[in-house]
Amino acid sequence: MVIVVVTVGITESVMARYRMDRVPKFVLTAFALAFFATIVTLEFI
Questions:
Q1: For residue 23, what are the contacts with CB-CB under 8 A and spacing of at least 6?
Q2: SS3 at position 45
Q3: What pLDDT, on a 0 to 100 scale, did the predictor assign at position 35?
Q4: pLDDT tens digits, residue range 1-45?
Q5: How far is C-alpha 42 from the geometric centre of its chain's CA atoms?
Q6: What is d(CA 25, CA 3) in angstroms, rounded to the nearest whole number?
Q7: pLDDT of residue 12
Q8: How far is it, in rounded angstroms, from Cα 18 to Cα 31?
Q9: Cβ–Cβ under 8 Å, residues 15 and 26
Q10: Is the pTM here over 0.85, yes or no?
């Protein structure tokens, strides 16, 4: 749990430094990775 919290904190800190025109690309990439992880997880259930 601590690793997840630290990872999210670092990600938020890095994202805050980017210009706003790059943020939608990162949000779309994060959504795609989360969707893929969900599909992979459902395969094993």
A1: 15
A2: coil
A3: 94
A4: 788 889 888 888 887 777 777 778 878 888 999 999 999 888 876
A5: 19
A6: 25
A7: 83
A8: 18
A9: yes
A10: no
What three-state secondary structure class fits 21?
Answer: coil
Residue 26 near residue 18 (C-beta atoms within 8 A): yes
Q: Supply 23's token pair.
A: 């943020």
* Distance, CA of 33 to CA of 38 (rounded, Å): 9
Tokens standing for residue 18: 């980017």
Q: What's the angle, vertex CA 44, arms to CA 43 and CA 45, rounded to 5? A: 95
One-letter amino acid of 4: V
Query: What tokens appear for 36 in the block?
Result: 């893929």
Location of structure tokens 């800190």: 13
